[in-house]
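Database export, one record per block. Field names are fixed; values are copied verbatim from the stored entry.
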Amino acid sequence: MVSQQDGAPEAGYDPMRQFAELAGDVRDPYPMFAGIRADTPVLHVELGAGSGARYRHDEKAPRISSLFTVTSYELAQQVLTDNVRFSSAGYEMTMGQVMGRTILQMDSPEHQRHRALVAKAFRTRVLDQWSDAIIGATVGELIDGFAGDGHADLIPQLTFPFPVRVIARILGLPEADWPRFLRLSTQLIAVMRNWEGALAASRELRGYFAEIIADRRRHTRDDLVSQLISAEVDGRRLSDEEIYPFLLLLLPAGAETTYRSSSNLLFGLLSEPDQLEAVRADRGLVPQAIEEALRWETPLLTVARLATEDVELGGVRIPAGSFVALSLGAANRDPEQHAEPDAFDIFRERAQHISFGDGAHKCLGMHLARLEMRVLLNAVLDRLPGLRLDPDADDPHIHGLIFRSPPNLPVRFDEMLPA
């Protein structure tokens, strides 16, 4: 194992294995989702003390004994857009304990104020600055590493390292620190699997970011940390205590969902060669290919809300204080919203998906995620002619019950083209 300074994984740590464990080893949950939706689109699940404990390694972790799972598109969207009766405050019990108070668990008006401050760092002008200098350059470097081989596994060689490098560069972090942040990001995301490990990762990241923020307050740079420090709405700026949680949220989010979204996009196109060639010939199809991939295989299958009052949803009574799990993956394959929902079809009639959520908490990073997917796909099509699934590959597939993406994506291509 090479040293951390060489940009390789830290000794004894396998990030691919850790992310695979986070996903859950389920090949196809969609028939189960369809059966639940047909029976009752709002399913009451009693976990009980014993059931809840199976998913945790630490008795200090919070327990959820009862939840309601929503699998229909209409009802999921209804919950997402009703932040009065369905609050995001439930994340305070889990992610809030390791990240601090992020916009993830805030409700209005607090959420609106903080989102407005942070959103300035993601406006179109800023994203345009990142497109070539950071995102395009990162993709190019990764493809350079295998473009002359005629074959590759696009997950470990491209889509997996891509977004965390982008986020690290956007934050202005030294390259030598990237493997460390990949490890710590994984530990943060695995909060309900290893509570103490997530808390330790949070403390380590917080100490590091304290130094970064202090440096940027003294010496402003052209990076996201400096933009967060200088962002101002109605004469108010973010304090250090408000910047920490956002940075802790951003890094694992960048390392997780974008990597899986890009992987699913490539898998879908490679599995349908006619659609792949159509996109190669007409780059105007790239945006609809991205949206179809997000709908077809939602990278994060479930988000949660907390009922603030007794409420009836889909004919089911949900008591105040109950956790409500919204199955985005099931909702995006609801036949009432999408015809033939299990098919990957970039030419389907457009209909809204909810992979980025909806309502006040719609994903703040969705424009960055789409930009990263677009730049990556165009680079792959430009530089890897004749791209196809490796015919000798051992059953390439997508799996996962919490997160979904292919564990591997072996491909072949004809020749190397210069960048």
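Remark 1: The longest strand covers residues 302-307.
Remark 2: Residues 240-271 form the longest helix (32 residues).
End of record.
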